[in-house]
Design goal:
- The complex is a heterodimer of chains A (403) and B (162).
- Chain A is mostly helical and 403 residues long.
- Chain A has a single domain, classed as Na+/H+ antiporter like fold (Up-down Bundle), CATH 1.20.1530.20.
- In chain A, helix 3 packs parallel to helix 12.
- Chain B has 162 residues and is α+β, with helices and mostly antiparallel strands.
- Chain B has two domains: 64 residues; 83 residues, Regulator of K+ conductance, C-terminal domain (Alpha-Beta Plaits), CATH 3.30.70.1450.
- In chain B, the strands form two sheets. In chain B, strands 1-2-3-4-5 form a five-stranded antiparallel sheet. Chain B has a five-stranded antiparallel sheet with strand order 6-7-10-8-9, with helices on one face.
- Chain B starts with a strand and ends with a helix.
- The chains are: A mainly alpha (403), B alpha+beta (162).
- The interface between A and B is medium-sized, with 26 and 19 residues.
- Chain A: GO terms for molecular function: antiporter activity.
Chain lengths: 403, 162
């Protein structure tokens, strides 16, 4: 179903997912994925009622492009909210917390990935997948729980910013390695192209501000939206065409817009666009997932949860201490960082593009289903840990004191 | 007084205001304009959410807290509806108003327009229930009460349109 009816089913389904999320008072992201999975050929396609097949949404060109636009807008927003000057003010503490987080979790991810999949590229992808916490879900939980007004919000948001910056570079390398194939020379070549493109974008973000300022100089909301989308999607599309991650390109375009006077307007005007296509992205992740493959990766996912939940709690705890927080609040930082989400899924989507070239199809699919199952469970576990943090906090206070 | 400002990437800004007794008022301003108000009993306590205000409401509450006149008396046309059709209005007396120099009784306000002058504001002082022999001066503010059409009539008298 790639016609209008199919798209209608898609949007009605994600709309239904929001109802369920509100009803259960949980983040909506896992429900987008679940409903996508339910309507995919591998689930709904298997059943029929009274001889009629259930409505199935297949991964059509529209869905795939919509999902890609979702990634582009998600990362564009991330770039837009980056204020380099502000960032530099608290750079020292952010780097300290961020480095602890990176060292422990990325390191553990590399070891875990290699132990589980016995492949260096897969290990590199798994390291990114288990390293990156979910900015979207964690920020939402911080607001819902009222922690946003507490001291623990600072190291958490600071670490998320560090992770986002790191993931921009990481995605560039990962996308280049995956498309570069197993040939070392070709891989080095595509990493080189990708990194030079990033440097070009960085220069554009640094020195192009006057141009971006003028580009959006208009009193019409319509023209602002159309021009911003035109610039962002064109540059992202060009990046993808030459084998660079579209997400990273969008991130830098967002950064280029950040110092202009239009930032606030862009945020309010493009937010609905981002939310619409991000929903398509999460839905598409679900559609691409065959839950039957979960059985095959269940053991791997269990191992990953057992390893990477404590590592995040530990790194978060140490980050909290680096911000001079007491053990109780540091424990909260740890619990709060456990949630993984959208970026892990973006890495999984990158892994899928390497199926049959740099990764064997079976391996790419395994990494992909592993990630979807892992993210679904971690998003639930992470938000639960934040909601029921009291016993952990008591433990931290009893064990490490109040100062 | 201690106020600290913190960036909340992806959310907005946080302001912590020391309000004495170890208590802190925490204001989270979201990028959407929504403000959340929290109270922190002491340095170690968790923030307790007091309320959430939309951008517009927050600005209105801010004006009241600031002590600025919520209905600025300088304006030549500010109205408060007392009941259906009855208004309490503020009028600034301009230099060129024909009423300048006349007493309230001499201007015959009540007879000509049907409104009652209930207060006069002069140099920041409010004279409630001014006597009929009080003289109207330029840059006074008159507070009158009456039906809407009477108030409109009074405005014309005040500006010399009548």
């Amino acid at each position: 179903m790639a016609d209008l009816l199919g798209i209608g089913v898609l949007f009605a389904a994600v709309a239904a997912a929001t109802l369920v999320a509100v009803w259960l008072n949980k983040s909506v992201i896992p429900f987008y994925i679940l409903i996508g999975m339910l309507l995919s050929p591998s689930v709904a396609g298997q059943f029929s009622v009274a001889g009629y097949g259930l409505p199935v949404v297949e991964s059509s060109e529209f869905v795939e492009l919509g999902a890609e636009l979702g990634i582009v807008f998600l990362l564009f927003f991330l770039g837009l909210e980056f204020n380099l000057d502000r960032l530099l003010e608290s750079w020292e503490r952010i780097t300290r917390a961020g480095t602890i987080d990176l060292g422990i979790n990325f390191g553990a991810g590399l070891v875990l990935g290699f132990a589980l999949f016995r492949d260096p590229l897969a290990a590199f992808l798994i390291a990114g997948i288990v390293y990156i916490s979910s900015s979207a879900i964690i920020t939402k939980s911080l607001i819902d729980l009222g922690w946003i007004a507490n001291d623990e919000a600072d190291p958490m948001l600071g670490t998320l910013v560090f992770e986002d910056l790191f993931i921009a570079v990481y995605l560039t390398v990962a996308a280049a390695l995956v498309t570069g194939g197993s040939d070392v020379g070709a891989a080095a070549m595509s990493v080189g192209v990708a990194l030079s493109f990033i440097v070009a974008l960085l220069l554009l973000a640094r020195y192009g501000t006057p141009w971006f300022e003028r580009a959006l100089q208009t009193t019409s909301n319509e023209f602002t939206v159309v021009r911003a989308v035109g610039i962002t999607v064109l540059i992202s599309g060009f990046a993808l065409a030459i084998g660079v991650s579209e997400a990273v390109a969008a991130f830098f375009v967002g950064m280029a817009f950040a110092p202009t006077t239009h930032t606030h307007k862009l945020e309010s005007l493009l937010e609905p666009l981002r939310d619409t296509f991000a929903a398509v992205f999460f839905f598409w992740i679900g559609v691409e997932t065959d839950p039957r493959l979960f059985a095959g990766v269940a053991g791997l996912v269990a191992a990953a949860i057992v390893v990477t939940t404590p590592t995040k709690i530990l790194s978060g705890y140490l980050s909290g201490r680096a911000y001079d927080l007491n053990p109780r609040r540091s424990m909260r930082v740890g619990l709060g960082m456990v949630t993984r989400g959208e970026f892990s899924l973006i890495i999984a989507a990158v892994a899928l593009t390497g199926a049959g070239t740099s990764l064997s199809t079976a391996l790419a699919n395994a990494v992909y289903s592993f990630t979807v199952a892992y993210v679904l469970l971690m998003s639930i576990l992470g938000t639960m840990l934040m909601q029921y943090s009291a016993p952990f906090e008591q433990f931290a206070t009893a064990r490490f004191g109040t100062e | 007084m201690d106020v600290t400002e913190t960036d909340l990437p992806g959310v907005g800004k946080k302001h912590e205001v020391d309000i004495g007794g170890g208590q802190q008022l925490v204001v989270v301003t979201h990028n959407t304009g929504t403000r959340e108000l929290y109270l922190k009993e002491d340095d170690d306590a968790d923030s307790e959410k007091l309320l959430e205000l939309s951008d517009r409401l927050a600005r209105m509450v801010g004006t009241i807290l600031e002590g600025a006149y919520f209905q600025p008396v300088e304006s030549s046309h500010v109205e408060t509806m007392l009941s259906e059709g009855t208004l309490l209005e503020w009028y600034a007396v301009e230099n060129d108003s024909p009423l300048v120099g006349k007493t309230l009784a001499g201007a015959n306000v009540g007879q000509r327009t049907g409104v009652t002058v209930v207060a006069m504001q002069r140099d920041g002082n409010v004279i409630a229930g001014p006597s009929p022999d009080m003289q109207i001066e330029a840059s006074d503010t008159l507070v009158v009460i009456g039906e809407r059409e009477n108030c409109e009539q009074f405005e014309r008298l005040l500006t010399g349109d009548l």
